[in-house]
Amino acid sequence: MSLLRRLLPAPLLSAALFLAWLLLARSVSTAQVLLGLALALAIPIRTTRLRQTGVSVRKPLVIIRYVITVIRDVIASNLEVGWGVLTWWRRQPDAKFVVIPLDLRDPAGLAVLAMVTTVVPGTVWSELALDKSALMLHVWDAPDEEAFIRRYKQRYELPLKEIFE
Amino acid sequence: MNASFWVEALVALLLVLSGVFVLVSALGFTFLRDFFLRMHPPALAYTIATWCVSIAGIVYFSALGDGLAMHHLLIIIMLCVTVPVTTVVLARVALFRRRMAGVANTPPALTPPHGSDSEE
Amino acid sequence: MSPMLNAAIMFAIGCYALASLLVLYRLTIGPRAQDRVFALDLLYIHAMLVMLVIGIRHQSDIYFEAALLIAVFSFVSSSAMAKFILRGEVIE
Questions:
Q1: Using CB atoms, which chains have 3+ pairs under 8 A with A?
Q2: Domain locations in chain C as residue ranges
Q3: pTM of the entire predicted model
Q4: Which CATH class for the C3-87 domain?
Q5: Considering CB atoms only, which of B43, B48, B92 is closest to A127?
Q6: Residue B91 is nearest to which of A82, A99, A125, comparing CB atoms?
Q7: CA-based nearest distance B113→chain C, Å
Q8: Between chain A's N and C termini, which has fewer beta carbons within 10 Å?
Q9: Looking at the complex, does the CB of residue B10 fall below 8 Å from at least one CB of chain C?
Q10: Which domain holds residue B77?
Q11: Bridge partners of residue A128, in order along the sequence
């Protein structure tokens, strides 16, 4: 167990590296598979000190549902922001800074939250309080601030709390 | 080396969509007035335009060659990981520089600095 | 390559060119430095999209590598520039 743990400190990272290598090489010949395996074994061991260790990821079903939610929201808010730009002369969206109280504390979870917030158009991650208790976003169109905060926490933060904590 | 009609129609539709989205994002980026408003439209180019082109590439090269050609997924994953870093740093830059310059209606810092003289 | 796909590719590249001109305009007038850095980042993305579309046009996989490299360079250069205008130093 401990030998396996030392050889494979981050199994998920190794699997991701292996898959990425095969995609990049665009072949599944023996040589590429061996090279990919070597890289997938060597890189996590050599970069232990660069990474935050002890990240535990649970509940694969929640992860899949979260990814689907994010993809759907990206498409929906793309249309919303694009339409808002095109009809700017008629109606200007209610853009403002919103401060959101945070419950999530895990650094990896916060990194994923920052990624999701930036990738979904209509929200820009602007500032995180030093003690990670609050977060400031710039929102494209938020007529009802309370409803936006409730929706954001329920949709994006709650699943991350389940996955990472 | 020819793909069927429906594959080409799908690829053409995706490419046209990506062109339209990139144009809308550039319009928004160029003509909106405030910097934070201007940060929203480029996300269209980073997300849906790139997704459309990548999916078009996956469909087209899978139909041309034998087997799935999934390597265009790497572009999507790569942009999803790298673009937030640049965007978040730029948003912080804008807030920091506005506070330094004393621009009106800039929100105060969430963590107030301890004494103005210890701040660098 | 059917005429339909060819027309779609021409339309997409035309849109990217027009969008790049608009962003270039913002790059030249951008009131603050952060506008210019953001515009440069967006220009990189447009170049990457053009590479991907040209790859489909010529039915070649070589352009994919170019697109991936442009994405990497875009990340490195714009995050370095953003860091520079944040503090005035790249490495603290």
A1: B
A2: 3-87
A3: 0.88
A4: mainly alpha
A5: B92
A6: A125
A7: 17
A8: N
A9: no
A10: 5-101
A11: A135
